[in-house]
Amino acid sequence: MASQPPATAKDKPDATAAKPLRADAQRNRDMLVEVAAVAFAAHGVDASLEEIARQAGVGIGTLYRHFPTREHLVEVVYRREVEGLCQAADELALHHSPDVALEQWMQRFVDYIATKRGLATSLRILLNTNSTLFSDVSGRVTLALRRLIEAAVADGSIRSDVDASDVLHALGGIYSAPDTKDWRDRSRRLVSLLMDGLRFGAGRSAKGGG
């Protein structure tokens, strides 16, 4: 009987594939990520992992079983924030008029930026060590914003000459604003001002008139 050729890496089962978690373990993991997102936004990436575990109602050993390193937890939190922001665009579009959905999404963007600012140091490290992290999420936020803007332009509630990349650039300026106690409130006011600018002259610009 002819001998079989050795199995190749393609033939072998993926030993690194994540196994489904038990329901209680999944709840613990989800709670850790939720608490960590709040902690990183409030205290930065140096937020205490022990305190995150305590607030999530688990021991520090449970945290490390799910997230062996701080950077691993940071990556999962970042992906969660991007996913939540993109899902919010679809949910808001279902329940609000296009301009209101756009404004509420931009307010949600402030919360996303708050968490991203807290993760800044570790994200810079991940940029050098995890080439797939940013390529995986690149463009998703822009696409979500573009859908909202196109819907608002189509119904005439904002100007017709609005470009999604320009709006995202304006929102990105929030990221580099000084980290003061009232940063979030000031950022929300700036979003309202930006939205007023998008609405101003909507009827005239939609018709191409002055």
Automatic annotation (TrEMBL):
* Any Pfam family matching the protein: TetR_N
Please give the superkingdom of this protein's source: Bacteria
Spell out the Gene3D superfamilies in the cross-references. Tetracycline Repressor, domain 2
Domain HTH tetR-type residues, every copy: 26-85
Q: Where is this region: Disordered?
A: 1-23
Example of a GO MF term = transcription cis-regulatory region binding
Which keywords does this Swiss-Prot/TrEMBL entry list?
A: DNA-binding, Transcription, Transcription regulation
Keyword Membrane (UniProt)? no
Per the record, DNA-binding region residues lie at 48-67
Protein's name in the database = TetR family transcriptional regulator
